[in-house]
Every structure is written in structure tokens, then in C-alpha cells.
Design goal:
The protein is α+β, with helices and mostly antiparallel strands. It folds into 3 domains: 4-116, no CATH class; 126-135 and 208-289, Roll (PH-domain like); 142-203. The protein is built from 11 helices and 7 strands. It has helices at 4-25, 36-55, 60-64, 67-74, 81-86, 90-100, 103-124, 149-182, 186-203, 262-270, 283-288; strands at residues 127-134, 208-214, 217-220, 223-226, 230-235, 239-244, 252-255. A hairpin with a 2-residue loop joins strand 3 and strand 4. It is elongated and about 70 Å long. The model is unreliable at 137-160, 176-206 and 279-289 (pLDDT under 50).
């Protein structure tokens, strides 16, 4: 099981949730007047058709982990916002709510693709240098070390913190949109929910980050970035900056004072990325000497 079936299921739910309300709002199908069994049967037909079509896509997880797919699966449900905010009839509002909720499975399509791609890269990668940035695991209190039972439990809950925050944020946004229709101060609900969730995720944030230079790319904790997605690196007195090939993505900066063996890390990076802070002598100047 490579995760392909999971992405197919997400796409099937996404398309069915997105298209059924559209058919009703456009007047092509009387969704509001249809019986629940008819609506369920229609949704299942659309979902099965989508899953069959997705099964024909080669390397679906890798294709799903792209900015283009993220735009395709996240932006279309937002087209229901005008009907949700300005709809005159109750059936239209509920159809818009259902259509807007398609953003939930749509959001998880590229996320699932990225997780599966990272897993594949980690499995076939050979690690050359592994360093830790931040507080190391060797503390005076062995009770909280990574190898202790309590340390393992804390580490597990920290990794799950981000997932809890994402799911909670999605629920908070959905609840706020419903409250917006009823006019009961959804902005307060939204801000309070997101503030609480951000505080919750802070509790699960680890103080250290593990970096690994591999033959497949740079690993930051469990996230792998292929070398083709990185443009180079700069070394300053204080930090090591990893540059991206895409201009809109920020560079990743790591404090050299917090890296256990920054020299070995720099040497390993130099095998796969150009070092952009080095100034070379122009060829014309060299030849004239």
C-alpha cells in the first residue's frame, strides 16, 4: 500500500462534494428536492467515476505533491463563498456550505502526496552527515532523554501537535463560516479558535531540529527536499542559509552556533549544492597575470 488508494479516496470525496452542490445551484439537478437515497447514489456514482479516472494517473502521489494540484483542489470550493454570503434561499446556502467543505479533502490531497513523496525519498536515501540544530538531547535530567519512555512519549506527542492544529483549524474555520450565516459573531469565534490552536501547537514544538545531508536531498526532521529544489547555500559568520530554486520560497537559515558539527555539514552540502557566498576570480583577470 503506497498511499495511492488514500489519495484516490480523497479525490473522489472532493469531486463529489464539489460537484453535487454545483449541479443544484445551476439548476441542472434538483438536489434540494431529491430524496437522500438519490443524493447518496448520485454522489457515489461521481466518486467512483473519479476514483477510476484517478487510477489511470501514473505516479499519482508524486503528481499530487505540487503547487498546481494544490491550487486545483483548494481554490475551486471558494467559488461557493458568494452564494454562501449572499444567497437568498436556505437551500442555496446549505448547498454552498457543502460545496465549500470540499476544501477539506481538497486540502489533504497535496498534503498526502507530499507525505508519501517524503516517505519514498527517505526510504531510498543514503545519509552522509546528520547534525542537530538547537538544544541537543543530552540533558542533565535523563528522565526526559529521547531514549527514555517518557522522552519517547513526549516526542510522539510533539510530532502529532501539528496534525492536531491543522485538523482543529479546519473545524474552526468551518464552524465560523456556519456562524457567519447565522450572524452570531463568527469573527470572534474564528480568532479565538485559531489563537487557542496556535498556542496548543506551541506546546508540541520541539526545541531541536535534525538535519541530514543525503544523496536524495536535504532532510529537515522528516521532511525531504530534493537537491533540484535547492539553488545553493551561503555561509556567514553566524548562519548557514539554504537557498531555494523558486523565488517565492524563503531560504532556510540555521544558526552555526547551534549546529554540533557545522564543518562536516558544510562539506557535505558542498558536494551537492553550489556555495554562492564564495567569490571567484574572473577568467580575464587570471589570464592577464
Amino acid at each position: 500500500m503506497d498511499g495511492r488508494r488514500f489519495i484516490q479516496a480523497l479525490l473522489a470525496i472532493y469531486v463529489a462534494t464539489l460537484s453535487l452542490p454545483a449541479l443544484g445551484l445551476l439548476g441542472w439537478v434538483a438536489v434540494a428536492a431529491a430524496t437522500p437515497p438519490t443524493i447518496i447514489a448520485t454522489g457515489l456514482i461521481i466518486a467512483v467515476g473519479t476514483a477510476v479516472a484517478a487510477n489511470r494517473i501514473a505516479d499519482l502521489p508524486a503528481r499530487a505533491a505540487s503547487v498546481r494540484i494544490a491550487a486545483v483542489t483548494i481554490l475551486p470550493p471558494l467559488a461557493y463563498l458568494p452564494s454562501l454570503l449572499f444567497g437568498e434561499s436556505s437551500p442555496d446556502e446549505w448547498l454552498a456550505i457543502v460545496g465549500l467543505l470540499a476544501v477539506v479533502p481538497g486540502m489533504f490531497v497535496p498534503i498526502a502526496g507530499a507525505v508519501i513523496r517524503n516517505k519514498r525519498l527517505r526510504e531510498r536515501a543514503t545519509e552522509h552527515v546528520v547534525v542537530t540544530v538547537g538544544d541537543d538531547d543530552d540533558s542533565d535530567d535523563a528522565l526526559f532523554s529521547r531514549n527514555s519512555s517518557l522522552g519517547v512519549a513526549i516526542s510522539t506527542w510533539r510530532r502529532r501537535g501539528a496534525a492536531v492544529a491543522i485538523v482543529g483549524a479546519t473545524i474552526a474555520v468551518a464552524a465560523s463560516l456556519i456562524a457567519l450565516i447565522d450572524g452570531d459573531g463568527s469573527d470572534t469565534v474564528l480568532l479565538t479558535s485559531l489563537t487557542g490552536l496556535s498556542s496548543l501547537s506551541m506546546l508540541f514544538t520541539d526545541d531541536s531540529t535534525e538535519l541530514a545531508v543525503t544523496d536524495a536531498g536535504l532532510r529537515v526532521e522528516r521532511s525531504m527536499t530534493p537537491w533540484d529544489d535547492l539553488g545553493g547555500f551561503r555561509v556567514t559568520d553566524d548562519a548557514i542559509e539554504i537557498e531555494r530554486t523558486r523565488w517565492w520560497l524563503p531560504s532556510r537559515d540555521f544558526d552555526r552556533d547551534e549546529i554540533g558539527d557545522d564543518a562536516a555539514f558544510i562539506d557535505a552540502l558542498d558536494e551537492y549544492l553550489p556555495r554562492t557566498d564564495e567569490k571567484t576570480t574572473p577568467a580575464a583577470t587570471t589570464a592577464s597575470r
